[in-house]
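Morning F.,

Quick status update on the modeling queue. The single chain you submitted on Monday has been processed. Sequence for confirmation:
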Amino acid sequence: MSVIYVIDDDASTRDAIEMLLQSEGFAVKGFSSARDFFETKYSGDVGCILTDVEMPGGVTGLDLLAEVSKNTPECPVVVMTGSGNGVFRSAAYDLGARDYLEKPFSAESLIDAITKATLPTMRALKAQ
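C-alpha cells below.
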C-alpha cells in the first residue's frame, strides 16, 4: 500500500492530518522536518507527500519539493502553508506541486487535494 508522508513541524497539525487521513483509509507516516524525511531514504511506497512550506532545520518545504521533483518527478507533492498571502503558491507550482493549500483548510479540501494528486500515479500503475 502506498504511504502518504505528512511533513510539518507543528506536531498538533501533523497529528490531526495523520488521524484524518488514516480515518479515510490512507496509510500515513509523519515527519517533523524535511531533513527527517530525507533521512528515511523514501522509496517506491510513496503515494503522496504533503509538506508544510516553512519549517526549521534549514530545509523548507519548497526545498523538499525541488529535490523530490528532480529525483522522483512522478511522486506527487501537495504543499501547505500557514502564510495566508499566497507568496509561495507560484514557486510551489513552478517546482511541480500538484496542489497548494493554505491553512486552515477543510478536511474535504485536504482529501480532495490528496485524491487529485494521487490519481495520475494510480492510473499509470494500473496501465502497466
